[in-house]
Amino acid sequence: SGLLNFCAVALGLNDQGYRAIGIRIDSGDLAYLSCLARETFERIAERFKLPWFSKLTIVASNDINEDTILSLNEQGHKIDCFGIGTHLVTCQRQPALGCVYKMVEINNQPRIKLSQDVGKVTMPGSKNVFRLYGADGHALIDLLQRVDENPPEVGQKVLCRHPFQESKRAYVIPTQVEPLYRVYWAEGRVAQVLPSLEEVRERVQASLRTLRQDHKRTLNPTPYKVAVSDNLYNFIHELWLQNAPIGELS
């Protein structure tokens, strides 16, 4: 009855010079109800010669998360917009995001944090980061370099190394090189014009399109690789040895 009442009110508003925007579904079988609503809108559009009626927005809410959206996609829903609240404000899969600030340079002097847990060892000094693309247009790897190194060049072979595992290394010949490092805050103020929400959204969508499907799949995705240059790799381990305490046996 809610759908039919909406349609009746929307038609009445149209007679008075107003145009309805759409509906929200927040309970029940979202896929089925969205298809029913779209079919109803299309029938009314044809019956009353109102083309815009067939394109009314259908919004869905009700504790929606990634799994819900994937399931709805498989069912061929007709939803235009998802209202995500609880699962956006409170991350169910990782309710706490652990972040720690680590100093990597003081007065132009590189600093390194040492730990028995290799995952906590920092990469010293100022760095640049570049995204390297393959021949198929997909992103292959992100490469960290020391700030004074020359950027990778298209068509030129570059050695990419795992920062802490010597045997993990590979040559990459990029077909495209994208600089990723940008300074947005410097000396206490915004350093460049901040993008709009629409520009941020387009940037994220464009970036996701460059990833292979196996990186984006929900179940057991392939980890995306981040590497260091040969120069940075050697610098990390030289500084590590210089700062690591030397034990004494007796």
From TrEMBL:
Chain ranges of the Nicotinate/nicotinamide phosphoribosyltransferase domain: 22-122
Claim: Phosphoprotein is one of the keywords in the record: yes
Give the Enzyme Commission number: 6.3.4.21
Q: Name one GO cellular component term.
A: cytosol
Matching InterPro entries: N/Namide_PRibTrfase, NAPRTase_C, Nic_PRibTrfase-Fam, Nicotinate_pribotase-like_C
Pfam families registered for this protein in UniProt: NAPRTase, NAPRTase_C
Would the keyword Nuclease turn up in this protein's UniProt record?
A: no
Q: Which GO terms describe its biological process?
A: NAD+ biosynthetic process via the salvage pathway
The record places domain Nicotinate phosphoribosyltransferase C-terminal at 127-235
- Sample GO molecular function, one term: nicotinate phosphoribosyltransferase activity
Q: In which pathway does it act?
A: Cofactor biosynthesis; NAD(+) biosynthesis; nicotinate D-ribonucleotide from nicotinate: step 1/1
What is the catalytic activity of this protein? 5-phospho-alpha-D-ribose 1-diphosphate + nicotinate + ATP + H2O = nicotinate beta-D-ribonucleotide + ADP + phosphate + diphosphate
The similarity comment for this entry is: Belongs to the NAPRTase family.
Under which name does UniProt file this protein? Answer: nicotinate phosphoribosyltransferase
Q: Which organism is it from?
A: Anopheles melas
| Native organism taxonomy | Eukaryota, Metazoa, Ecdysozoa, Arthropoda, Hexapoda
